[in-house]
Amino acid sequence: MKKNKAPEGMTCVIVVDGKFCGEEPNRGQLYGAPNAKVPLCGRHAAETYAWSTSQYRDKLIAQLVEIGALSFHSPGVTYIVKLPNGRVKIGMAGEERIAKRLEDVSREYAKAGYKEPLTVLALIKGGGTVEASLHHKYQELRVTDELGEQFRAEPELLDFATETGVSEEFAWVVVSYEQWWNKCSKKYTGQDPTEKAPTIDDDEWDF
Ligand SMILES: [Zn+2]
Fold it and tell me: Which one of 24, 113, 155, 198 is most buried, by most CB atoms within 10 A?
């Protein structure tokens, strides 16, 4: 029998809602370290791979930042926002995309039923490298659900974010986000919940 072959009848062992996933192993294979292999379906093999590579990348970048080996950060802006579900998101976008990115995050949560705006805690110059080192620094607080990767709003993270704050050059992003929210949330904040929402032509706010 080939070493990586999943034994006959064995299915994906990832636990979903208290039960084994139970899908067929991807390509009939086992996955993992040489002496710790498990059967995984295609989706769970991909998720495990993506998670372990991002963990590895975050750690490596965090170590480079720590020892001062990076002479500059990768381009972009890293944001730390308080989400309407009470958690925190740490992400990044290009400088020209950052305002739109916050709108996208906001819309995603609104669609999931959280109809409060984001609170922008910090906007930091630097993209992927800043994001990776923060993801690593706060990895103990990481939570993942159907809305993706988030962090528990513990004081250590909130304190860091508020102390860091919004860099002056990105103050416009907060203004832009708030204007967008005020315009788009109007139809949900009316006194009469049965009143028909006003039409907003220039935004695809569709939840
Ligand atoms: Zn699975």
Answer: 24
